[in-house]
Amino acid sequence: MIILLSNDDGYNANGIKVLSKSLDQIARVILCAPMENHSGSSSSLSLRKDISVKQIEKDVFVVSGTPADTVHLGLSGFLDVTPDLVVSGINHGANLGEDILYSGTVAAAIEGRVLDMPSIAVSSLGNTERDFKVAARVTIELIQRLKKYPLPKDTILNVNVPAINYDEINGFCITRLGNRHRSYPIKKVSKDKSEKVFQIGLPGKGRDAGPGTDFYAIQHNSVSISPLHIDMTHHAIFNNTERWLSKK
Question: pLDDT tens digits for 214-225?
Fold first, then answer.
């Protein structure tokens, strides 16, 4: 088995290092990750610009572009082999609810699915060595299950792992995405009158966070597994929208 491994925190981040070492036990791992941190880059591709790739050791490639770029390159002829699976992570922090719209980690997995490859995005609520080892162990269990029981072609697994010891995990839960309250206000960081400088506010706390949601699973020390797909059509109101359009 060949795994294409990427992330959005950069090739030198602890999360991807721990995951790569763990996945080496079950597969050939080709690490193809951004040179720098690209958190919040979503599915951005570096169009109309050159992307440099530097091989720093066997099966380790550092890319000047975004997380989506790294997977696009890896699955579009850059490698001399075809991976069997895309894994993105381990992200340093949660990707719950609307986070997936902005997450470079989830975007790398989405790019894998766009290019017809089974894909998993993995995030840890913590950022210690223990937290990453726990998340890596969870990832291996899911990969072994996927090998035995493949999921439908258009499915992406968004996995969030609580920051606890493995033996404290309260099972694996299939969850839907919750949602957050609106973000905290932007922060002004410059008093220069000629140029105003701001930082984006922190994400809001969970709003739709009841039973069945990814927020709820994490709050109750369970691994959250949210099956995602690329079709963003609001099917439930499709007919209502047609009637709305036909009104005189």
Answer: 999 999 999 999
| 133 HSE (CA, 13 A, CB side) | 6
Tell me: the pLDDT tens digits for 135-169? 999 999 999 999 999 988 788 999 999 999 999 99
Spatial contact of 35 and 10, defined as CB atoms under 8 Å apart: yes
DSSP type of residue 97: T
Look at the chain and report how many structural domains it folds into: 1
CATH of the domain at 130: 3.40.1210.10
97 φ/ψ angles, rounded to the nearest 5 degrees: 55, -130
Give the range of the structural domain holding residue 228, as residue numbers without chain letter. 2-246
Amino acid letter for position 150: P
Whole-model pTM: value is 0.92
In terms of C-beta density within 10 A (0-12 exposed, 13-18 middle, 19 or more buried), how is residue 209 classed? buried
Whole-angstrom CA distances from 246 to 23, 142, 206, 233, 237 are 54, 47, 37, 19, 14
Is the separation of the CB atoms in 102 and 8 below 8 Å? no
Distance (Å, rounded) from C-alpha 20 to C-alpha 248? 59
Give, for 137, the enclosing helix (H) or strand (E): helix 129-148
